[in-house]
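hi!! sorry for the late reply, been swamped w classes. u asked for the two structures so here they r. pasted raw, havent cleaned anything up. first the sequence of the first protein and right below it the tokens
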Amino acid sequence: MWVNAFILLIYFPHHELLWHFLYKGDFKETSKDLTIVRLIHYCHLLLSMMIFEAYQMYTDFPAFSLKELLYLPALFFYTQGWFYFAHRLMHHPNLYLWHKEHHYFKEPPPFGTFYCSTFEHLFVNMGSLMIPLCLFSFSQITVYIWAFTVLHNSVSAHMGIRYRGSEHWIHHQKFTVNFGSGTLFDKWFGTHESL
């Protein structure tokens, strides 16, 4: 639970303060009430924490083993694949209704990370985090490191102006490229673009 408290009380507020301090003047205020955006973001973050907490309560974690390091490439590969295909699927005209909320910002702020529909959050975001943890048996420390790494990458990709030219920033500009959380699957399927 202390990891969840750290994320909620220190990690995200730190990114918001950093974003406001460095980029507030460059961010075009929108007609959308940013309080609502933050509220949705933090509600989805709390939902994630509850799912993660339930997973921890009902999991018998093995002791840490160096063998876990052998599974990490598979974990990264799975997560990259799940996020790429699930995110690309959300851009299909029949499903985009559930995803367009996330694309409200052309310059994505950190509190826009989880600004999306609950369906998208559970299917795309939580699917890429939780399914591999259920498939493989990892120690609790590896699970915490993994969850924090996934969260940090998501928030960092939504730091807006700081990462202009990053793949995810380009995705928020064009919508039809850079669906992955990394470049591997985008390069394989011809959807990678960089500046």
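now the second protein. again sequence first, tokens right under
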Amino acid sequence: MLLPNKVIAKGYESFAVVSSDGKVHTGVLVSRNATEVVLADPEKKGLTSIPRADVEAMQKAELTLLRDADGDGQADVYSSIESRFRFTGHYHEFAFGPVTNSAGDLFFSTGLSASKHHEAKQSGSGQMSSALGYRGWVMRVDPQGDLKPFASGLRSPAGIGMSADDELFVTDDQGDWRTCGSAVFLTFDPKQPAAAFRWNR
């Protein structure tokens, strides 16, 4: 249990690294240098070494590939993997992930804008909204680079995870139509057209 007036001691913070092959590695940072990042996994009781050549990072506006081209331990090349889900610049349009399944698909989640930010999307009930693109969604990027909507109806899906059995979960924050935070198991029905999904009703 983490007490409200306490902090996590330096050296015990949890790190998550997504490598270019789509694997997610979590643990406590043991060391990092120009060639690798080493994490300690308490559950597996061992160390994981991740090559530092390529790392994927999620930003509000895009999924980015970071590459250390000269081997000095710092990213030199920032390449956009995906940005078609759109971003207006609103502070609440967070993005989380990515996680990957065994097929190599990447999944990430996006948060909605706060109400009254976009005049075209005013909500009489004060609900959060999406002025453009796929906000309040989980998106999938397949190994060929195709972006596909996966699930909607989310407000601020601030956590996303994939089980060893390729089960996709998100945690959604409370507010608007959610009275409390929740953990949600997501599945995809290919017979359900993406256009039929509505996050606001």
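hope this helps!! also noticed smth abt the second:
DSSP finds no helices and 14 strands in the chain.
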